[in-house]
Amino acid sequence: MAFINLKDKLIQAKIVYYGPGKGGKTTNLEYIYNKCREQINSKMVTIKTEGDRTLFFDFFPFDIGKIEGYDVKIQLYTVPGQVKYNSTRRLVLKGVDGIVFVADSAEERRNANILSLKNLQENLTLYKKNIFDIPLIMQYNKRDITKEGIPILDLETMEKDLNDDLKVPSFEASALKGDNVIQTLKKIISATMASLEKELK
Amino acid sequence: MNLALGGEQLDKIYDTMKSSLIEIGVETAMLLDTAGNVITSVDDGSDRHDVYSLAALAAANFSAMRSMAKIAGEEEFSLLFHRGQKENIYLSAVSDDFLLFVIFNNEMPLGLLRLKVARVIGELLGVLITDSSP
After folding, report:
1. Positions of chain B with pLDDT lower than 70, given as ranges
2. What ipTM did this prediction achieve?
């Protein structure tokens, strides 16, 4: 649920990075946070376990400038990817306006990607949202791990597994190196803004 | 569903929080929605709190508490109070979708604050129910 402040001409919208555990959601946000410090007036909030895994979420607000006279502040969140944290994952999804699904390209994570996407669809249903209607971008992360000898899924397989029905824009990425991280962000922001504009008309 | 509030409503919310909370000594008062958006915030002029981070954490904290209430067999725990050595936090439900977040120091009597918060919630509800639109 985006909030539009008609007095100060400010829009706040919520974008959530979703996906299986250890897929690179937090790494995406860390890269954005370090690259775009001028547009971020807060510290990055992280709620993690002792083992450095996301327990609840990571968060920071991101000022993207003016759109049609309105200052737009994007609230960027991650969810905890581990299967056992579904109740907290659901809480973070409340009021979501746009989603980046961060899939893990490692061959052995194929099933985890599929299950996480199914879980996203189920959790959105709880908020009466449809995965086919909400702005969604697919990011195939960790494409670089092949250089370390780790087998990765080919793009056709990932598209078929995750994007055959959805047919949303997708990016190959390496969140660790920053490859396509900003492009993914730009794409979800423009999709989210287009959707909000449509709803407001 | 998106929420849009105009100048008149936001002014009413701001004035209510300022006159009933800031003027009795509260440091920061904020109306937020349960998605973590800041609707309006007002402080004592010190501007020392990062309200956007606080809103994200407060909404998450309250949602987690609501889920725990349901597991415990309660409909909900309608408020959260955290006492620190110098600063205290009071978080209260305004409605299903809105929360009132307050930071105050130990000089503020808790009873007075609770009384004022209850009154402010009633006034905010009046503004939100009549003026908010989907």
Report:
1. 1, 130-134
2. 0.84
